[in-house]
Amino acid sequence: MGESFGVYKLGADEEAMRWITSANIACGFHAGDPDIMDRTVGLAAEHGVCIGVHMGYPDLAGFGRRAMRLSLEELTNCCIYQIGALEAFCRKHGTAIRHVKPHGSMSNMADTDDAVAEAIVEAVILTTPRTALLARPGSKLGKVAIERGLPVISELYADRAYCADGTLAPRSLPGAVLHDPEEAAQQAVRMIVEGWTKTLGGQRLNIHGDSLCVHGDTKGALDLILRIRAGLEKAGIRIERR
Q1: How far is CA 44 from the centre of its chain?
Q2: pTM score, two decimals?
Q3: β-pair partners for 5
Q4: How far apart are the first and last CA of the chain?
Q5: Are 78 and 55 in contact (CB under 8 A)?
Q6: Do 40 and 23 contact (CB within 8 A), yes or no?
Q7: In angstroms, rounded to a whole number, what is the distance separating the alpha carbons of residues 18 and 48?
Q8: CA distances from 89 to 26, 41, 61, 127, 212 (A)
Q9: Cβ distance 5 to 36 under 8 Å?
Q10: Residue 59's closest CA among 16, 7, 102, 1?
């Protein structure tokens, strides 16, 4: 959330906030700006939504979805900067950061790249050392975080297709983004209840997690959220903030 910029609006944050338990808020590098961050943190605080740092590469034009190669020091400082910015707005609104989650290409690279994972974990340890890190099951990021003593929340994706190795299918591939609310809800329920999903190539992928992501910039995100909630509740799954 918070991925609008200046006069450009992206997503339906106001409408969606009442239906979610946690919000990953952009910090001005891949999207967002100080005013947007302020409003989004305030909105989350108003609705009792847990706030997460959604830090990305310094790539506004590419929305943080282009691969960048930074040194370990550059990437660590890039993350520290964004954590600090969001933490300041949280203090303004009387709330606090509850988790940290890398965005886009940074997140994808942290799945398999030790150096990227190390930089992200180092930044969290240096700034908010007891804060949970969201990571995909089986990722380098999750492994490094656990080794360094950070709490990890395994994250699943309701609106994205998976590859056989558990990484997200590249957005350039047809079918990589799920736009049909019913299809997204079925995938969410299957992962949470049965512990598996079907990959983009049609294979079975066993997968388990504690948190479920819907991208705010996915077309029809609010409809996806409402349908997913309904499907989970029908399956007897309790959705809670923690």
Answers
A1: 15
A2: 0.94
A3: 8
A4: 18
A5: yes
A6: yes
A7: 9
A8: 12, 7, 24, 15, 25
A9: yes
A10: 102
d(CA 205, CA 196): 5
Q: How many whole angstroms separate alpha carbon 82 and alpha carbon 105?
A: 16
Q: Position of tokens 């409809």?
A: 223
In order along its 242 residues, the chain shows pLDDT tens digits of 999 999 999 999 999 999 999 999 999 999 999 999 999 999 999 999 999 999 999 999 999 999 999 999 999 999 999 999 999 999 999 999 999 999 999 999 999 999 999 999 999 999 999 999 999 999 999 999 999 999 999 999 999 999 999 999 999 999 999 999 999 999 999 999 999 999 999 999 999 999 999 999 888 999 999 999 999 999 999 888 76
Assigned token pair, 183: 């299809």
DSSP E strands in 12-164: the ranges are 22-26, 50-55, 97-102, 132-135, 152-157
CA 75/CA 139 separation, integer angstroms: 18
Q: What angle do CA 120, 20, 108 make, to 5 degrees?
A: 30
